[in-house]
Amino acid sequence: MKILITGSGTLIGNNIANYLLKKGHFIFALYNKSKPKNLINYKKCKLIKINLEKKIKFKKNLDVLIHCASKIPNDKINKKNFNANIKMTNNLIALCKKINCKRIIYLSTMSVYGSIKSKIVNENLKPNNIDLYGLSKRVSENKITALAKNNYFVATIFRLPGVVGKNSKYNFLSNTLKRIKNNQQITVSNTNSKFNNVVNINNLSEIIHKSINKEKSTKIYNLASTRPLKIKSIINLFYKKIKKTKNYITEKEKKNSFLICTKKIRENHYKLYSTKKSILEFIKIND
Predict the structure, then answer these.
(1) Which residue, 81, 132, 214, 282, is most buried by CB atoms nearer than 10 A?
(2) Average of per-residue pLDDT across 63-80
(3) Residues near 161 by beta carbon (within 8 Å), at least 6 away in sequence
(4) Residue 239 CB burial class (10 angstroms; 0-12, 13-18, ≥19)
(5) What percentage of residues in the chain have a pLDDT greater than 70?
(6) 5 by DSSP, 3-state: which?
(7) How large is the angle between the packed helices 275-285 and 231-242, nearest 10 degrees?
(8) Are 221 and 158 in contact (CB under 8 A)?
(9) What pLDDT does residue 186 have?
(10) What is the pLDDT, as a whole number, of residue 254?
(11) DSSP 8-class letter at 182
């Protein structure tokens, strides 16, 4: 298949591109600032530097478009970056219409739910107090599902929790690993609460690959790991595997804890890593 992947210079886009290339697909790897040098030697890969906020000039036929690129909270999600995310989505929708690409896979976020008060988060949970980042992803989801409905496309949307992999950052587990490896004290709250708000990048790549041929109608899935672990068990697992002396303090719960319901995606026969496996593979690849 001919597949276009945005954000191929990022952790998520790069790993998905690399995985699909190994499966024999032809990849158009779009990037903006970070050139994915690890993809250069693949014969079935064409690297394309592009600013997705501008009109996209692309005339090749495509079987699938996978949209990974995004302005994220670390980029200071203000009105400007909110508009940037919407512009990217609008331009990719225009491209799909122009070249008649019938399959879109969109990587969204758990932030589309906003401030979560529920103990369990399923796909039908109503949003509450969404910030600009979550709103930009929610609006993009709606635009993509509307495109699919009106133009007989198939859209698959994956709402991601924290994604961990080689040199990952910007989430609880990645920040925790970095601090422990640097012998820094960490502060932990909600120690007795269970946690599955993580997906390993390898598992994500496997899921994306399976979804390319599997999905025949538009669907939205929450992604997470199975078999939740208590926060204190996760912290102890880090110290044990990294072979560092425990150096953390606990504090009172700051906000409500929640678990991500993965029933829908599991019922559709996708295989999810357990929370422990997601973390162990994350530690190993960063050793």
Answers:
(1) 282
(2) 85
(3) 110, 171, 196, 197, 198, 199, 223, 224, 260
(4) middle
(5) 98
(6) strand
(7) 30
(8) yes
(9) 94
(10) 66
(11) T
Would you say 182 and 251 are in contact if contact means Cβ atoms under 8 Å apart?
Answer: no
Picking from 163, 144, 162, the residue whose alpha carbon sits closest to that of residue 154 is: 144
Contact 88, 143 (CB under 8 A): no
CA atoms within 13 A on the CB side of 223: 30
* Structure tokens that stand for 83 in this block: 């508009």
- Token digits for 79? 């009105």
Q: Quick one: DSSP state of residue 64?
A: E
Kindly report the length of the chain.
287
Task: Determine contact, residues 47/31, Cβ cutoff 8 Å.
Answer: yes
Q: pLDDT tens, 178-214?
A: 999 999 999 998 899 999 999 999 999 999 999 999 9
Residue 133 tokens, joined: 């980042």
Spatial separation of the C-alpha atoms in residues 43 and 22, rounded to whole Å: 11
The model carries a pTM of: 0.95
In 165-286, which ranges are E strands?
186-188, 194-195, 198-200, 219-222, 229-230, 248-250, 259-260
What pLDDT, in 10s, does the model give residues 212-227? 999 999 999 999 999 9
The C-alpha atoms of residue 208 and residue 216 are separated, in whole angstroms, by: 14
DSSP the chain: -EEEES-TTSHHHHHHHHHHHHTT-EEEEEESSS--GGGTT-TTEEEEE--TTS-----S--SEEEE-----GGGT--HHHHHHHHHHHHHHHHHHHHHT--EEEEEEEGGGGBS--SSEE-TTPPPBS--HHHHHHHHHHHHHHHHHHHHT-EEEEEEE-EEE-TT--SSHHHHHHHHHHTT--EEE--TTSEE--EEEHHHHHHHHHHHHHH--S-EEEE---BS-EEHHHHHHHHHHHHT----EEE----S---EE--HHHHHTT----BHHHHHHHHHHHT-
Instruction: Say if CB 70 and CB 88 are below 8 A apart.
Output: yes
